[in-house]
Amino acid sequence: MSEEEILRVEDLSVRFPGENGPVQAVRGVSWGLREGEVLGIVGESGSGKSTGALATIGLLPPGAEVSGSVRFRGRELTGLPERELSRVRGASVAIVFQDPLSSLNPVYSVGYQVAEAVRAHDPEISKADAFARAVELLDLVGIPDAAARAGDYPHEFSGGMRQRVVIAITMANNPDVIIADEPTTALDVTIQAQVLAALRTAREKTGAAAVLITHDLGVVAGQADRVMVMYAGKVVELGTVEDVFYRPSMPYTVGLLGSLPRLDADAGARLTPIAGTPPALDRPPAGCAFAARCPLARDVCREREPELAQVGEEGHVAACHFSAEVRERSAEEVFVPVSSVRLAGHEAQDVPPGTPLVTAEGLVKDYPVRGGGLLRGPVAVRHAVAEVSLELAAGRTLGLVGESGSGKSTIGKLLMALEEPTAGTVLLGGAPAVTGGRRGRRGRARELQMVFQDPMGSLNPRMNALDLIAEPLRVNGVGRRERRERSLELLASVGLGGYAGRYPHEFSGGQRQRIGIARSLALRPRALILDEPVSSLDVSVQADVINLLRDLQDALGLSYLFIAHDLSVVRHISDRVAVMYLGRIVETGERDDVFDRPAHPYTRALISAVPVPDPRAERAREHTVLRGEIPGASGPTTGCRFRGRCPVFLDRLGEAERAVCRERVPALTERGQGHPVACHHPS
Amino acid sequence: MDILAPVPTGAPGEVKQEAPGAPYRLMVRRFLRHRLATVSLVVFTCLVLLAFVGGSLWHYSYDVFTPDNSVPPSLEHPFGTDATGYDLFAQVLRGTQRSIEIALLVAGVSGAFGSVWGAVAGLYGGRIDTVMMRIVDLVLIFPAIAVAAVLAGNVAHGEQSWALVGLVLAALTWPYVARLVRGLVLSLREREYVAAARSFGASIPHIIFRHILPNAMGTIIVTVTVNVAVAILAETALSFIGFGVQPPDTSLGLLVSQNQTAITTRPWLFYFPGLFIVLIALSVNFIGDGLRDALDTTQSGRRA
């Protein structure tokens, strides 16, 4: 990496017209990108991280006003006519967006599109040679069987594969700068690892510098050389990854790092959420934008905006009046973690912790796969859930993890009787639950409730907070007076007392999820099913909701089924963990047993793919990049369902041992203390 | 249980700088921001007042001859008169009244019937859905104007002919509403808040009246508004070809038709009714646009 700057941004501002006057999405940021380096840009949603980066190369929606200066290799880009700009972009800058479909043309095969990029860069090359080069590039980014698949069209690829096709096109363009805007956000960790590996290959082959925009601090820790933290349209801290992660000097950075549950850390520690929400950018505050949420804020912070100033090491700058003070404190000392639960008039469970409350035995859920044809008869069966047994105990949390498509959400629906199981039984407090239709759901509603993933989607936008929380009571025939009292009490207990008349759109994401949680508690259930309850929230808010859930559990003795794809969160909150793959539980056990001594190859791969927000640890870890993706209905129907992706099966087993995997479905068998694994060759 | 220490969960005032209160206030503000829609609402209200109240105040009636034949617009006859001596201003007011009545009848009947049809099909799904939607397809493939002409031309006579024209047009336009509402219900019933309600054990009527309808209402209102404009044009077309409103009653389409031969010699006879048709259709369309923007809950309004 040289010190030469390829891209220099000075005092860049972006304004959009908004409902209440102009929104200042980016407010005077300055930064540079050096030759060959990776600059990570992190921040919560709405911090201006994408807008700021895309503005440098003139990629903004119409209506945006840009001011300031952007120099690319010394050439001023702002003010250039669109035609000139697009020439610069075409020749030197490649962009990888979050949604790869937006950058691929659906009517051409992927091979053709990569070849086009090759030919655009090198007009001399023949069509056949360009296509051969395209296949080579597709192979480089890890498209299996690239020669055969080059003729396929974008819709025939999965999200992760499409993203890799985009990266192949990026390589063909041989850019000087790659801008990756949340390239792995909607992807599973295993697929994220594949895409990040492809991106790394692309950078190494082209020698390009890269801007990596993400909200995932773990990804930044593993991939970036320097990191820039943005808040409310400003750069608040910028430095090498090690400086920023180990010596954060701005309270917001400290808070972001402290609010993150970690896969490799002591799970008992309490997270430190950052209270409040970012300021609205149509009227930015006069002083430091973070002052309203900062526990260290003093008068000067509210009056005068801090400038970026060097703190400690060369090149490490932070915008805080008290950065010296911040450097000496840990996250717990800055953001003193406090409980947010106020429970008056709630009573704890009448059963001792550990008592089984909900038991599922041999749950099976098959979906028919329908054919085309006139009659659309079932042509096959997809096993969404196969022989799953689990137990939810009072005061305990069972974490259920797996990639999307593993069937974990279906289990939640089966337990809630939102779906009918094909086979198997659910026991509530030892007695079989009524199955079937609305009666079944009513019976369960008082024992078992659900908190949904998307707090906006699960709250009816036409109802206010009070009516939302009262709805389960109303449905179950509770009188008006009692309904009102109980809902107000619940609202207060999740820290939202006084906002009963507000509608969902007037709350922030975290507050909405608090309403969802309060609603789920209305019928005083013994157990909650939490289906990805924090995955749509920003990290600082996520920590707040996790803390709330823990407090509620401690106070009420609730049992949780915590369904999530984020292993760090699951490790933080669970007592026991179950890992699912294609409808089956492949490993289960006490949390630390599973995370520290994973026995199933899938669990091991999953854990190794999770990026840790600690640069040294992350770079030292051994990563198993799992091949392929979770197969759909076309997956293997006999034997072990994981074998097509299993590193052990593919790389280490002899023919005789493989035959066992092909023929026999591995059963969950006990290995040691309460840690059963479904694998013929566990480690 | 002890009361644990409170935590600041963020000043909710910061969450959103929109006016606090029910979502409808936000909608009113959004509608008023759509300038064309606001102007159109004023124009349309004036037209309605003029047509329904102005007609009886004006000193000529639409069906009484005046002593003046074929005079151009003047103070006495603001829109002039035709060859037989009818005062065109009185006739245009009457025509506007009829056209608006027909349009509202069409929009109301087709909106209500189509919504119920679509909602039932969407919610029940399966075979009921298939049969109901095939019926919709069947009605949709009728060539609307031809069918309306035959039906209205054969049955519509006398005083109430306008109502029959309206009902025939409604019978031909409800499938558009039904299709739209069905699609909407199909997506609404998959929402997580419906799943949440089901998980509390909510009944189907509860889900329809508390969740589906309140959230579908916006789109239904917009569609019905747009249908008003469509119906006005359809009525005009029918009357123009002689199968709509029958004389001595009159409508805007009929006026244009009766006076089409005068376009070179007495152009006012043609242009004034035409102007009113354009005004009504445009203003209703813009009101529809404004409503669409105002009711679109997908716009958070904060992110540009």
UniProtKB/TrEMBL annotation, chain A:
Domain ABC transporter as annotated: residue spans: 7-257, 369-607
GO molecular-function term, one example from the UniProt record: ATP binding
What membrane topology does the annotation report for this chain?
Peripheral membrane protein
Name the Gene3D superfamilies for this protein. Answer: P-loop containing nucleotide triphosphate hydrolases
Asked whether the UniProt record includes Mitochondrion among its keywords, one would answer no
* Region forming the signal peptide: none
Q: Specify the domain of life of the species encoding this protein.
A: Bacteria
Where in or outside the cell is it found? Cell membrane
Mainly resides where?
A: membrane
Assigned keywords, A-Z: ATP-binding, Cell membrane, Membrane, Nucleotide-binding, Transport
InterPro entries with a match to the protein in the record: AAA+_ATPase, ABC_Ni/Peptide_Import, ABC_transporter-like_ATP-bd, ABC_transporter-like_CS, Oligopep_ABC_C, P-loop_NTPase
* Any single GO BP term: peptide transport
One Gene Ontology cellular component annotation held by this UniProt entry: plasma membrane
Q: Which SMART domains is this protein grouped with?
A: AAA
| Homology family | Belongs to the ABC transporter superfamily.
Report what the protein is called.
Answer: Peptide/nickel transport system ATP-binding protein
Q: Which organism is it from?
A: Streptosporangium saharense
